[in-house]
Design a protein that fits this description.
By secondary structure, this protein is mainly alpha-helical. Helix content is 48%, strand content 6%. The protein is built from 30 helices and 10 strands. The longest helix is centred in the middle third of the chain and has 22 residues. It is elongated and about 105 Å long. The N terminus is likely disordered.
Length: 713
């Protein structure tokens, strides 16, 4: 079993150790078959695709472990083969960046310097082609009157240039010589200045720092458009294209990416070939971004044209249906454990093997909890409850397991109470509340958007979200409709939106509602929580903007008016459509429970469901109606508790619910069969940790839509 734990990187950040990812990390897993080396022990492995490997793109939403997998690949391979990792969302311009800086020219030196790290039984990789190209591009802003810019740019390229010239101060001596050469050059008023500076720079760099053998690397640029086979002309044209911008700059940047690949290929060819084992590894995190596509697509196009580069490329994409994956061969993680069954198609992006990372299964979640609870102090069902809440999202599982293991009173824990606990996720940072940490990780850099989303998480659909945005967030936003902006922001991060819930992911919705409930610290009033749900209740009334009885009762239950819900269920009980009545019960009981932070002991709904509290009878009811009312009160609270993802199922309450449903089947004039089936199948659903099936017993039917065909408000 692969284990999850915490390790600390050099920056103090806590990283997860992985398990449940055998399809990638096993000795015959995807990583071994694409690199030719096992991750553990570096034994040789037969390539699955020797001459034409795919680019492996790991797909999945936030918290699914894409970055953790790439970091693990780096950690496992960096001593046995050249490896480099870049996070495309973390490449930002330095304060002193000049005109030659773009995300591509910023990322390439970082990748190259990582790839030069010493590995077993092989000399460090040199990058003469990439060095020449980046120096040519950097020179576009240099002038004879200002040496500062030139010195700064060359110093920033120092680590990369050191792969060619080991003298640490070599770059500083070039500047004067480049500018002297430029001063003595005859100016051509027609020729672009950028090209002239680049030419003078390249000549100086080749003369000063490149050996006779390395100088031949300049010839590689002879294939650049309009170079006519002359490498120095190609480098000059590269600089000119870069300065012009637009599509020409994109062409120059693509060629720089291919220069890095050509340098890696050269390191694995010729006399050095026998000294190197496996393939170099390029890791591109967040490759769905524009930078990620610019780093990966030149390699894809080159491979589609039949040119081989011998690089094992692993990337990640948070957006499953990104246009860059339009012709990718798609597999789920377990399907690539022993063979990917990938083959190239006609499209360029058919060179991608898109591997969807799958959630952790219940047994893997149990292993995570066991690792943090070696004394066996936590409730037996907690791990399974966390699996239900998180859907097996690895980041959430690990944080909740860590919190459970460190809890002072673990015996009373439920998934909801775990969100209130504190965990230490960085050695250099104070402990953070689990709910806040998860939101920070699942919605990074959201800023005020998190508070907006917390309000909108209470909405059922886009209509009610827009209503809340107008009443609670300010309709007149200068940036346009708040609800629609938040909808698009969720979609951009590949979070599902509606129908049924504006924030459709159960975990994210639970975290946002937790924030809505507790963020203002207004215990016991919870003013913001109350105001949001009162706004929705008003919208669903018969005279409101979105009249809907099911939604109205749902909101009344949130606001504590359970008696109104019970009364309506009692009045409609004798109607012939029993399935619609059960669906209504189910939908009302899907209301979020207004929790109290830090509460311990049994859930208050349990006593009501078992008939041990709140057995009062409304005045004026006949005995049979009063008996039905009390029964339905017990049933509503039982279903509310048992279907709550922040609570744990209770066996006694489950049995009581089944008993109530059987009693109802005998009371109803026509609905005996449907209610009897619910008494059989709903307890089965609960014990299997499934949503309640609608109709009862129907496979895969766990929806929570309104039972009367009301609007998806």
């Amino acid at each position: 079993m692969w284990q999850i734990g915490w390790s600390v990187d050099a920056g103090g950040a806590v990283e997860r150790e992985l398990y449940g990812r055998e399809a990638i990390f096993a000795d015959d897993g995807l990583a071994a078959r694409l690199t030719g080396l096992t991750p553990y022990g570096s034994a040789r492995v037969v390539y699955e695709h020797r001459d034409d490997p795919p680019v492996a793109v790991l797909t999945g939403g936030r918290g699914m472990g894409k970055t953790a997998v790439l970091k693990q690949l780096r950690n496992l391979y960096r001593e046995i083969t050249p490896v480099a990792l870049v996070d495309c969302e973390a490449v930002v311009a330095p304060e002193d960046a000049g005109p030659a800086w773009t995300p591509v020219t910023g990322a390439l030196p970082t990748l190259a310097t990582q790839l030069t790290a010493k590995v077993r039984a092989a000399r460090p990789v040199q990058f003469p082609r990439l060095s020449l190209g980046l120096v040519a591009v950097a020179s576009i802003s240099w002038t004879r009157e200002d040496e500062t810019r030139a010195r700064r740019d060359l110093q920033s390229l120092g680590p990369l240039l050191a792969t060619v010239d080991g003298r640490g101060d070599a770059a500083t001596g070039w500047v004067t010589k480049v500018l002297t050469k430029l001063a003595s050059s005859a100016f051509d008023s027609v020729a672009p200045m950028a090209g002239m500076v680049a030419e003078a720079t390249i000549e100086t760099v080749l003369e000063e720092s490149f050996s006779r053998f390395q100088r031949r690397s300049a010839d590689w640029y002879g294939s650049y458009p309009h170079a006519g086979g002359n490498g120095r002309i190609g480098l000059r044209q590269l600089a000119v294209d870069f300065e012009r911008g637009g599509d020409l700059r994109r062409r120059a940047e693509d060629h720089l990416v291919l220069a890095l690949a050509a340098d890696l290929l050269a390191a694995y060819g010729g006399l050095a070939r026998g000294a190197r084992r496996g393939r170099p590894v390029l890791l591109v995190d967040n490759a769905h971004t524009p930078l990620g596509r610019q780093l990966v697509e030149p390699l894809l196009r080159q491979r589609a044209a039949g040119a081989l580069d011998r690089i094992a490329v692993f990337a990640s994409s948070r957006v499953r249906d990104h246009e860059g994956l339009s012709h990718a061969v798609r597999r789920r993680l377990p399907e690539v454990a022993h063979a990917s069954r990938w083959s190239r198609g006609t499209g360029v992006t058919s060179g991608i093997l898109a591997v969807e990372l799958t959630p952790l299964d219940p047994e893997q979640v149990r292993s995570a909890f066991d690792r943090h609870d070696r004394a066996g102090r936590i409730p037996a069902g907690l791990a399974r409850g966390v699996h239900r809440l998180t859907g097996g999202r690895p980041l959430a599982v690990e944080l909740l397991a860590l919190a459970a293991g460190e809890a002072a009173e673990p015996a009373s824990l439920v998934p909801g109470s775990l969100l209130d606990l504190m965990v230490e996720v960085r050695e250099d940072r104070a402990p953070a509340q689990v709910a806040d940490e998860l939101l920070t990780r699942l919605l990074p850099e959201a800023g005020q958007r998190v508070d907006f989303l917390a309000v909108l998480a209470a909405a059922h659909g886009e209509d009610s979200a827009r209503l809340l945005a107008g009443s609670r967030l300010g309709r007149g936003s200068p940036d346009g409709d708040v609800a629609l902006r938040m909808r698009d922001a969720l979609r951009a991060d590949d979070w599902p939106v509606g129908p049924g819930h504006f924030v459709a992911d159960p975990l994210l919705r639970a975290l946002l509602l937790h924030r809505l409930r507790f963020q203002d610290g207004d215990h016991p009033s919870y003013a913001v929580w109350q105001a949001v749900h009162v706004s929705l209740r008003g919208a669903y009334t018969p005279g409101g903007r979105h009249p809907s009885v099911p939604h109205l009762l749902h909101q009344k239950l949130v606001l504590g008016d359970a008696e109104a819900c019970v009364g309506h269920l009692r009045l409609r009980f004798d109607e012939p459509d029993v399935s619609a009545w059960l669906a209504l019960l189910h939908f009302i009981a899907s209301a979020p429970y207004p929790r109290t932070r830090g509460s311990v002991g049994p859930d208050p709904r349990r006593a009501v469901a078992l008939g041990r509290a709140d057995n009062t009878v409304p005045r004026g009811l006949e005995p049979s109606a009063a008996e039905l009312h009390v029964l339905l009160r017990r049933l509503l609270h039982g279903v509310w508790l048992l279907s709550d993802p922040l609570a744990l199922p209770d066996e006694e309450v489950t049995d009581k619910m089944a008993h109530e449903l059987r009693q109802l089947s005998g009371r109803h004039p026509t609905g005996n069969s449907v209610l009897w089936d619910a008494a059989t199948h709903w307890p089965r659903d609960i014990r299997a940790w499934r949503p309640l099936s609608m109709p009862p017993g129907e496979p895969g039917a766990g929806g929570q839509g309104p039972g009367n065909g009301g609007p998806d408000a």
